[in-house]
Specification:
This protein is α+β, with helices and mostly antiparallel strands and 697 residues long. Helix 6 (169-187) packs across helix 15 (506-518), helix 8 (260-271) packs antiparallel against helix 13 and helix 9 (275-287) packs across helix 12. The protein contains 17 helices and 32 strands. The strands form 9 sheets. A 7-stranded antiparallel sheet has the order 16-11-14-15-10-9-17, with helices on one face.
Length: 697
């Protein structure tokens, strides 16, 4: 009997796959990559057409020796690494490290499967293939480009800021996206607006008909209290009549099944999972879980994908399941159709359960709490994607008030469709039920009017979920890179996370400014997205990977040489402060740390004294008159507070206070870009910083 060896990436898969195959198959794991570029040098031979210098990863020697022993015993070797570019490259490296290409008596095959189930694994063994060198070259190109950026630019950051920093092709572009948003928020000037709501009593209904002021013949924006008072005065004498009642129907389409990006976003929003946690748990569900009554099986399909495609077999089984458990009218006859984007890789299916009949309730006792919650989210989303749309009956009401118009909208769900399994609390109740009790021409009694002042809000701070969505929309990175990119930015302390929001640290601002000034192309979103398209071209066999590298390196090298010269004047070194060390009397120096700048004794290691750096900004505290200083939260986010530090003054502001007083209310103003705004939003005075003479409300 021929002996067969199957090599997978993860030890967790070994147990799962071994159960599917007979005694003639041995299953072993490579534990990920076995070869890579060396850490001690760039590892790319620039003089010889950018040839990578791969070496065995430190600590993998014993593993490779064990794999070689298994190879000697086998007649057929199946390379069963993950079904993506990275997995293809790992198989290629195994081929070289185990010298499998040199043997004639042993047959070497590449197999891949999108889910770890008995059917999928056995089907892959019946249909083996050769290595796809286009996929390998796409991974090589990404690895070489990322290594060039990291090893060429990082030393510049070490020299100009501090050791231990890093730059990355995708990482630096993602940092710029967050920094640009923070700059927009900091410079945002709120604008005042007002709303006017009316609640009409309708006979036969306990709840009133809720309507919102629209305008007169056309929509009106109410911009001030004065304008609002004029409208309210006119409405005191108004009579109210229903001008129009329009019935309609609204379709709420079923969601698409999960891709890596949408899974990460939903897990963040619904389960409060960090992207890294989502991927770790999804990996466990993919590789195999011991489910009571079923043994060890993979519960979901491959977790790194940007396709919403579903296999014909999965479509058939889900349709049968939905028809049996929910009824024929709930079964969608359409296959999922996502947005057509040039950078979508359609090699894999969407993320779905491997067996739709394994409901979350059936596997709950076999899973950890977080595993269950993520599996339930994936199962419900996939089920919903294969079901029909939800249908709502809508009513639009126009109410006249002596030349002014109020509008009311109502909706009532008449068919739940996909929302029977996947309804995030949306529109469960009937909205504005009293709309059913009014008809055209009906006279209404005077309503209860409620006016409210509002101010426009800036774009929200990025969260992990919204940053992942932006990276995907802008074509930056791939499903496999979203989580590690964000993790790196947090680990380097370029970003910090408070609650769900991401904020840029002082260190992140410094690094981003250097990258924008010296390496503008690297952090340019369009350039990074275009590079991803070129890498896709390599994977499709349309572009030679060396061509990309040959074109990229000279510009990078020139930018590095210029940066080494031009960035000298912004070099950030330790500065001597005017604060003596409490322990030894030396004058303390200003250093950069994970949370920004701090004071440290220059006598280290004899004297290890450190203390927070309280940078005075030259503005007296609006509350007590003492100095305003720049402070940082525990996680490193900057704010402005009184030097009293809460002992007897609790003043704080996210924006820098100004010496200029508000000419309207006399309160303090804050700096927002090149403007000054009153800190009291109810006042709303805005002035140019250069021209203090003219303010505007």
């Amino acid at each position: 009997m021929a002996k067969n060896l199957v090599i997978v990436e993860s030890p967790a898969k070994v147990k799962t796959i071994k159960k599917f195959l007979g005694p003639s198959y041995e299953v072993v794991a490579s534990n990920g990559h076995v070869r890579d570029l060396p850490k001690s040098q760039m590892g790319i031979d620039v003089e010889h057409d950018f040839e990578p210098k791969y070496i065995t990863i430190r600590g993998k020697g014993d593993l490779l020796a064990s794999l070689r022993r298994e190879v000697k015993k086998a007649d057929n070797i199946y390379l069963a690494t993950d079904p993506d570019r990275e997995g293809e490259a790992i198989s290629w490296h195994l081929l070289a490290a185990l010298k499998l290409g040199d043997t004639k008596e042993k047959k070497v095959y590449r197999i891949s499967f999108n889910e770890i189930t008995k059917t999928a694994v056995k089907a892959s063994l019946k249909d083996p293939r050769e290595l796809d060198m286009n996929l390998v070259d796409a991974q090589q190109a990404r690895r070489v480009l990322d290594r060039m950026v990291g090893y060429e630019i990082s030393p510049v950051l070490w020299d100009k800021v501090k050791r231990g920093l890093s730059a990355g092709r995708v990482q630096s572009a993602a940092l710029r996206i967050v920094c640009d948003r923070e700059e927009e928020i900091a410079a945002f000037i709120p604008e005042e607006y007002w709303s006017l709501d009316a609640d009409f009593a309708v006979k036969g209904y306990r709840t009133p008909l809720h309507a919102r002021f629209y305008g007169d013949a056309k929509k009106m924006e109410i911009a001030s209290r004065q304008q609002m008072d004029e409208i309210l005065a006119a409405l005191e004498r108004a009579s109210y009549e229903v001008l129009e009642v329009k019935k309609g129907e609204r379709i709420r389409k079923a969601p698409l099944p999960f891709t890596t990006s949408t899974m990460q976003q939903d897990a963040a929003n619904v389960l409060n999972f960090a992207t890294q946690k989502t991927m770790r748990i999804a990996q466990q569900l993919y590789e195999g879980v011991d489910v009571k009554g079923h043994g060890t099986i993979g519960l979901i399909t491959y977790l790194r994908t940007d396709s919403v495609r579903i296999s014909d077999e999965a479509l058939a089984s889900s349709r049968a399941y939905i028809e049996e458990h929910y009824g024929e009218k709930y079964v969608s006859q359409e296959a999922p159709a996502g947005r057509k984007k040039g950078n979508v890789q359609d090699a894999h299916e969407a993320i779905r359960p491997t067996n739709i009949a394994l409901t979350p309730a059936m596997v709950k006792d076999s899973l950890g709490r977080d595993q269950f919650r993520l599996y339930q989210l994936i199962w419900q989303r996939y089920m919903a994607s294969r079901m029909t749309s939800a249908v709502y009956e809508t009513t639009a009401v126009k109410i006249g008030a002596d030349g002014y118009v109020f509008q009311a909208s109502a909706s009532r769900r008449i068919f739940d469709g996909f929302q029977s399994v996947y309804d995030a609390g949306e529109e469960k109740k009937e909205i504005n039920a009293a709309a059913a009790g009014v008809t055209t021409g009906m006279k209404l009694s005077a309503p209860e009017l409620t006016s409210a002042q509002h101010f426009t809000q800036p774009q929200p701070h990025y969260t992990e979920a919204s940053l992942v969505r932006t990276l995907e929309e802008d074509g930056i990175g791939r499903p496999s890179t979203y989580a590690p990119t964000i993790t790196t930015l947090l680990a380097r302390r370029y970003l910090i996370k408070e609650e769900k929001n991401l904020y840029v640290t002082e260190l992140g601002e410094v690094v981003n400014n250097i990258m924008k000034k010296a390496f503008g192309t690297i952090v340019d979103v369009s350039f990074t997205a275009n590079m991803e398209s070129l890498l896709d071209g390599v994977a499709d066999g349309m572009v030679d990977w060396k061509t990309i590298v040959r074109n990229f390196y000279p510009d990078l090298d020139e930018a590095v040489r210029m940066a080494e010269q031009e960035l000298k004047e912004i070099r950030i070194a330790d500065e001597v402060s005017d604060v003596p060390c409490d322990l030894c009397g030396r004058m303390m120096v200003i250093k950069y740390g994970p949370h920004g700048r701090f004071l440290a004794c220059p006598g280290f290691p004899e004297c290890k004294n450190t203390k927070p750096l309280l940078e005075k900004v030259g503005v007296p505290c609006p509350k007590c008159g003492r100095e305003i200083v720049l402070r940082r939260t525990k996680k490193g986010r900057r704010y402005f507070g009184c030097e009293g530090n809460g002992a007897d003054c609790d003043f704080m502001s996210w924006q820098k206070p100004s010496l200029q007083k508000c000419p309207v209310c006399g309160g303090y103003m804050v700096e927002k870009g090149n403007r000054l705004t009153c800190a009291d939003p109810a006042c709303g005075t805005v002035m140019n910083r250069e021209e203090h003479g003219t303010g505007q409300k």
